[in-house]
Amino acid sequence: MILRLFCIMLILFSLAGCVSGKSRSAIKPGAMISLPQAKNDIIDYHESGEYYKDVNVLAKSIARRVKAAINGKVRYPAVVMSVEDVLLSTYNARRKQGFSDNSAARKDLYSHIILSRLPAIEPSVALFEFLLSRNVPVFIISHRGEAVRIPVMENLSKAGFSGWKSLYMMPPNYPADLNYNEEVRRGLQKLGFNIIATVGAVPDDVAGEFTGKAVLYPNYIYSSRK
């Protein structure tokens, strides 16, 4: 299921021009499907419950890793989690815009963020509560800027996420050649925390060092953040 949907999203991006890039590979004729079918398959994946089953499997794998760290008496264990499509879902907002990434779609998504309207991803709520019950601090990273810190905090609270250790927002004019997520993890490591797992929705979220168990939630709505 995951591999099939990954292929579907590659087709969707190629046909709709949702994601920019220096070059695009040709799609083999046998793999070609229609754009409406690709969108329908994404919707079916989410609304059939398969998406949540896959996320639940990943969330439980993180819980097992944390249990093992605690039983192994790892000092100062911690977990790092991204906001969008890890804790809060952008699916409804993106579906409304046909999963496109044009300026209108980005503005609409931003309005959901400003109004703190993004719903929780339920398996992440259960994982979050488990971590807090074991006194494992959760550090949250958002790729959004400081201008939306308060709405993001309110959204997290409304969705059932409270008690996290710190929320890191993207600094202004951050160098393009640095991975902010990795730099945050590097700082936590220097403070003495042992990161047991890092949970993201796009590869940059879990790229680089100090990830512990690197976990990518299934995400077929976009391949990179803008």
Protein topology:
Layout: H1 2-16, H2 35-47, H3 50-71, E1 77-82, H4 91-96, H5 103-114, H6 122-133, E2 138-145, H7 149-158, E3 166-170, H8 180-190, E4 194-200, H9 203-206, E5 213-216
Parallel strand pairs: 1-2, 1-4, 2-3, 4-5
Characteristic key phrases:
single chain, 226 residues, alpha/beta, Rossmann fold, 9 helices, disordered N terminus
Describe the structure.
This protein has 226 residues and is an alpha/beta fold. The chain has two domains: 1-18 and 31-48, no CATH class; 59-88 and 119-216, HAD superfamily/HAD-like (Rossmann fold, 3-Layer(aba) Sandwich). Helices cover 46% and strands 13% of the residues. It is built from nine helices and five strands, in the order αααβαααβαβαβαβ. The protein has helices at 2-16, 35-47, 50-71, 91-96, 103-114, 122-133, 149-158, 180-190, 203-206, and strands spanning 77-82, 138-145, 166-170, 194-200, 213-216. Strands 3-2-1-4-5 form a five-stranded parallel beta sheet, sandwiched between helices. Strand 4 (194-200), helix 9 (203-206) and strand 5 (213-216) form a beta-alpha-beta unit. Residues 2-29 have low confidence and may be disordered. This is Acid phosphatase (Class B). It comes from Maridesulfovibrio hydrothermalis AM13 = DSM 14728.
